[in-house]
Write a structure and sequence with these properties.
homodimer; about 325 residues; five-stranded mixed β-sheet; alpha/beta; 2 domains; 10 helices
Chain lengths: ~325, ~325
């Protein structure tokens, strides 16, 4: 195994870059802007230039670099995406183009899947080979790890766990076009939606410190921790949806561990306790004690996972 | 690769046995009784004797046998089960014991998982490497295939898809101890449960040919096919539960194909059409066109899958 590799995490605003030792140590991390003009045609050349610059700056010979792992926001299959909306990309052969630009082996994956791999490597699921990692952010994403490898799926939709139908009473469409998706009730925006519903439903006996003008997942969890009853209703409803869905996912791959990340996971143990309560009620007997834990790598999960992808695939 | 292998499917009443060419052809199949007396201690010796007898009868040299695959009704992990209720077994090292008795390499798996592998090899999912196979029988079981291999899971519960919580209104406990499991509304007995509920709910305007004394999944589907409205309500409710659950499972592993087997699948295309309707409504965009098809191997799925398990693992 060569000494170094790169882990790249492409977002719609910035590209996060990491230089790793293939033994696992993060040596350097930095960001560049994602230039999405002209169909995002500069994104991969900018990444190639950033890598060349870093190698020069550190005096690293390309012959000592195993390769580049890269996570992108789109359904990656065999190194290509048919599209990546946030990057303004149409069909793009990521591995082909970035490989040609850098002369290095490249392995591409979906960003949420890659972040899951990062959490397995050095984060919340460290030491495990079978994990379900769920990211509770603006949306709900995830990655499924079976026997140490990402499940990409036949259409690049492995781990798209935000789009199970869980709520018949939600009639507004999800970003995916369906209605009643987990994402609509378990993302940060989903929690705000549930909070609005609870506030609308309050009667004269209810008291709350939730401010209808400043609702956020954070404010809901903050008030919940202080004992606010309306916030508790919101958290219980959220946790019921998510815990039940996790029970359904667990009977598919029966993971060793379930990891919750993303902005909502900043609520910490209060989140874990609430979700675990519903998970344990509905999970299959053999899976009831599967630990549910917090992600550890935060915004670095993507670069860690991309680096791991490169290490596993390129060697 | 040696010429022959055995595929063994252990049930609570009979053991199904198959002699296969490792190239895939089923040469011979037969059954022996499952003797579950004395903690099921005769089950593995009886299988060993049946194999020895078959080799002698056919004049096959043991040196030409790659090995034995065996499916058992229990949570198999690394060749062992902690228990197998229907066989009266406590902790049993299946691969160790049967290997010692026969002098052949043995690979063991859970019976539902192994049947799924059989359907992938020569059944409804033939030609695919990523599949979800669901068995709708007295219970609801299944097997998840990712990249051509069974997902066993951390506790042997991979593919226990009958035990996702899907129905809040069912208060009676499932065999697993939880309430509202998919198995309670999508198995043959689950369909009878839903039919009873619909019959209880009928008012003076409703007419049905369903006979409350002779309810079965078959009678419900038979009347449904003839246009019976009450039977249609039952089928729609069943299909709604199952189709929605399949949508949730599909965002976990994103299979190439979904296969429905077990006794309920004798309803044929009427089953596929009803379930597909709800699946397509709620499945994630990328997975909406994933084919849902009927299983093909019937009761032989287990011996096919066990043989395939032996071939893949022993080589």
């Amino acid at each position: 195994m060569k000494t170094y590799c790169f882990g790249i995490d492409v977002g719609g605003t910035t590209v996060k870059c990491g230089l790793f030792e293939t033994a696992g140590k993060l040596c350097d991390k930095w960001e560049i802007k994602t230039r999405i003009g002209n169909g995002g045609e500069q994104v991969l050349p900018d990444i190639a230039a950033a890598i060349e610059k870093k190698l020069k700056e550190r005096g690293i010979d390309k012959a000592d670099v195993a390769g580049i792992g890269i996570g992108v926001p789109g359904p990656v299959r065999e190194g290509k995406v048919p599209f990546a909306v946030n990057l303004h990309w149409g069909e793009t052969d990521i591995e082909g183009v970035l490989g040609q630009l850098t002369g290095l082996p490249v392995k591409a994956g979906n960003d949420a899947n890659v972040a899951a791999l990062g959490e397995m490597w050095q984060g919340g699921a460290e030491g495990h080979k079978d994990a379900i990692v769920i990211t509770l952010g603006t949306g709900v994403g995830g990655g499924i790890i079976v026997d140490g490898r990402i499940v990409e799926g036949a259409h690049g939709a492995g781990g798209e766990v935000g789009h199970a139908h869980v709520a018949d009473d939600i009639k507004e469409p999800c970003n995916c076009g369906n209605t009643g998706c987990l994402e609509q009730v378990a993302s940060a925006t989903g929690i705000v939606r549930l909070a609005r519903e609870e506030l609308d439903r309050m009667d004269a006996n209810d008291q709350t410190n939730l401010n209808p003008e400043k609702l956020s997942a954070k404010s809901v969890f903050d008030e919940y921790k202080k004992g606010d009853e309306v916030a508790a209703r919101v958290v219980n409803r959220f946790a019921s949806y998510l815990g039940t869905a996790l029970g359904a996912y667990a009977v598919v791959t029966d993971p060793e561990i379930i990891v919750l990340g993303g902005g909502v996971s900043k609520a910490g143990e209060a989140l874990i306790d609430a979700v675990s309560r519903y998970y344990r009620a509905y999970a299959f007997a053999a899976c009831k004690n599967t630990p549910i834990v917090l992600a550890k790598l935060g915004n670095d999960a993507g670069i860690y996972g991309s680096a791991k992808l490169a290490i596993d695939s390129i060697g």
